[in-house]
Design a protein that fits this description.
This protein has one domain. Helix content is 75%, strand content 0%. It contains twelve helices and no strands.
Length: 272
């Protein structure tokens, strides 16, 4: 199936072929699948037992049931979404296959679409079992958020894709010398997006920076839902608007970095 008849040169078949390639790589290695579940489970259990202790010893936190566990699970959507995107991209660099892909009929938007699909696949493998563990251990049901969870997920996954696309561009241009960015860049957002505390905790000048980041609105919305039992649709719409800008900016940056990589010949040296 192709959308070329509509003036958009985008092939669903090529995207599907790339997704199958990454799926075969993933399912052929049980340690890779185990790793997708292991780290989210460890974090959820650690913060879950911490919240259990605090809720038993502090009145305020007793009313904020699940706020830490919810924050951990939503943070993992953001972090694992970006990491799943970047790992699939790194697979091509490790295999020295980027040059071959760029010379094939596969177009950059199709390549990115396949990476985004695999990001969701990897995320689902890790998060679904962990969310069930949260119910079993702590009685926290992430799925009970309903429509709010869908709004949180859409905004967080858009941010993770935008960051993943930008990192992919940096890797194209700079090779594996920039590999550490794929593993560490999201942690720059951890203190600024106020995952475990409200924005008001930050210094006033830093609050302006926090409100420019889409995940901040999601975590504020999560606290409003769990503590005040109010779904803040306004926060979700603002997050989505910022995500559109961020995603478009990351896509433009990727295309420019790809063009620069082609000019410099770094596509064939990506594993150096």
């Amino acid at each position: 199936m192709s959308l070329s008849d509509t003036g958009v040169n985008f092939s669903i078949r090529r995207v599907s072929a790339m997704v199958q390639r990454y799926w075969y790589l993933l399912r052929s290695s049980w340690p890779r699948i185990l790793d997708l579940i292991y780290w989210p489970a460890v974090q959820m259990l650690m913060w879950g037992f911490l919240q259990l202790y605090i809720s038993q010893n502090a009145g305020y936190f007793a009313q904020a049931g699940g706020v830490f566990i919810g924050a951990v699970l939503l943070w993992d959507i953001l972090f694992r979404g970006q990491l799943g995107f970047s790992i699939s991209f790194l697979e091509e660099m490790y295999a020295r296959n980027l040059g071959n892909l760029m010379m094939s009929p596969l177009r950059p938007p199709e390549f990115l679409a396949a990476l985004m699909i695999m990001s969701v696949v990897r995320l689902s493998i890790g998060m679904i079992p962990v969310s069930l563990l949260a119910i079993a251990f702590f009685g926290f049901n992430l799925w009970a958020m309903g429509f709010a969870l869908a709004a949180f997920f859409v905004n967080l996954i858009l941010t993770s894709w935008a960051i993943g696309i930008f990192v992919a561009g940096l890797l194209l241009r700079n090779g594996l010398g920039a590999e550490s960015m794929a593993w560490t860049i999201m942690f720059l957002f951890l203190p600024l997006t106020c995952v475990y505390y409200p924005v008001g905790v930050l210094p006033e000048w830093l609050q302006y920076v926090a409100w420019c980041l889409p995940p901040t609105y999601v975590f504020e919305g999560m606290r409003a839902l769990l503590i005040d039992h109010v779904f803040r649709a306004d926060l979700m719409l603002e997050a989505f608007a910022f995500n559109v800008v961020l995603f478009c900016g990351a896509s433009v940056a990727f295309l420019k970095l790809l063009a620069s990589a082609r000019e410099q010949g770094s596509l064939l040296q990506g594993a150096d």
